[in-house]
Amino acid sequence: MESVQTKTWDFTDGRDDSILVVTVQELLDADSDYGLYTWPCATVLSQYLIHKKMWLKGKAVIELGSGTGLAGLVALRCGAASVLLTDHAEKRKVLQNCQSTVESQGYSDMQVCGLTWGHFSPQLLNLRCKVDLIIAADCFYSSKDFEPVLVTVAYLLETNMAAEFWCTYQVRSADRSFDFFFEKWQLKCTYVPLSEFTEDITAACRNGTTNPTEIQLMIITLCKAQD
Q: What CA–CA distance (Å, rounded) separates 84 from 72?
């Protein structure tokens, strides 16, 4: 039996002591998709978005693998002009849950769309428009998703040369590496220390089962955009 849980997150910006309160819906049952639960990487990414809130103002944002949509909601609340929440096109419960959150909170500048990583679908082709920022939390959960995610990102960045991809990644194995795919798709990655944007990493993770040091924040751009 499905159980809908409303979860509220309080994010603090230590620079001005402001507090941002964001509410999402989680759908809990024995067969629930991973995307129906808010994972620690999403809260860390959200904390970074708050740290960059001045830069976010007026930007067009796309979130890949949105899950409950927490990071996308934070981006909109931080002043983004528009936010598109996306997740796997076949994950109907996840997309419906995102849509329910958007509609219940009345966000007119936020849309929900099915988008499967690595597939050059009509949905992806229609996204070849102005994009300032792509975000994702824990989209590299499985190593089989490394290249599909980066193919999609590279495709979007090619028509938005100044855009960036900000993502958080929980290190689950020291044997996993992105380097081959970064080189293959001409991408450059810069790692941002979590200490640069939050003094309390444990609080940002909001989950005692996760070691905060296992979460990394990556900023990915096209190599040629850096030349």
A: 8
